[in-house]
Design brief:
The protein has 206 residues and is mostly helical. The chain has eight helices and three strands; from the N terminus they run ααβαααββααα.
Length: 206
């Protein structure tokens, strides 16, 4: 499948905008609402944006080639509506058809919710499993070996997926350790050089 068969062509344009910090913060506000509620009503989203981003929204600037200007969006409600329009234009939100209600509702498409979940985990931290994957894999295979019923294939498939996830987590841990040591060396090296130069000067001054 082609990349842009899944993602709209302008999906990532938010990150190159002068308003990128505001857009990202607003998306995370909507994502928190998405995790808490089963319906995303437009009125609720506007209220949530105003409550959480009162000062930030006043800093919004017009993007080049903007279809909707900010000149008329002076109040906070208007700017919250501007953000929702922007997210609809770029594919981060989609209108939810609902003939049973006159309320305007939105959904976050699957591709967008996966990315927002990733952003949220990176920014807020997430407990990473290691032992849990080992134990679940061992238990699944042991049970399958004892019972040898029609669920053996499912157990093997589950164990394979758990092993791949464990490997991915361990690889991420290894890369993070390498980055940590690299940054630590970058911080220590200048301090060490400065001390060495100062010591050299003191030795020659004496």
């Amino acid at each position: 499948m082609n990349f842009f068969d899944v993602f709209p062509h302008n999906f990532f344009s938010l990150f190159s905008s002068p308003n990128r910090e505001i857009y990202v913060e607003a998306l995370l506000v909507l994502y928190r609402h998405y995790r808490q509620e089963t319906r995303m009503k437009k009125a609720d989203l506007v209220s949530r944006l105003v409550a959480n981003m009162e000062n930030k929204m006043l800093e919004l600037k017009c993007d080049e080639g903007e279809l909707y200007g900010l000149e008329e969006e002076i109040n906070l409600s208007g700017r919250a509506h501007f953000l929702l329009r922007k997210f609809l234009e770029t594919g981060w939100l989609e209108p939810e058809p609902d003939v049973s209600s006159f309320e305007e509702c939105y959904v976050i498409p699957g591709y967008a919710s996966k990315l927002l979940n990733l952003f949220y985990d990176i920014l807020h931290g997430k407990t990473v499993e290691y032992n849990g994957y080992e134990y679940s894999t061992y238990s699944s295979l042991k049970t399958a070996d004892l019972e040898r019923d029609e669920h053996v294939y499912d157990a093997l498939k589950f164990s394979h997926q758990s092993t791949l996830q464990l490997w991915a987590n361990l690889r991420e841990l290894l890369d993070n350790i390498r980055l940590y040591h690299q940054r630590l060396q970058e911080q220590v090296a200048p301090t060490f050089c400065t001390r060495a130069v100062c010591g050299f000067r003191r030795g020659h001054q004496g």
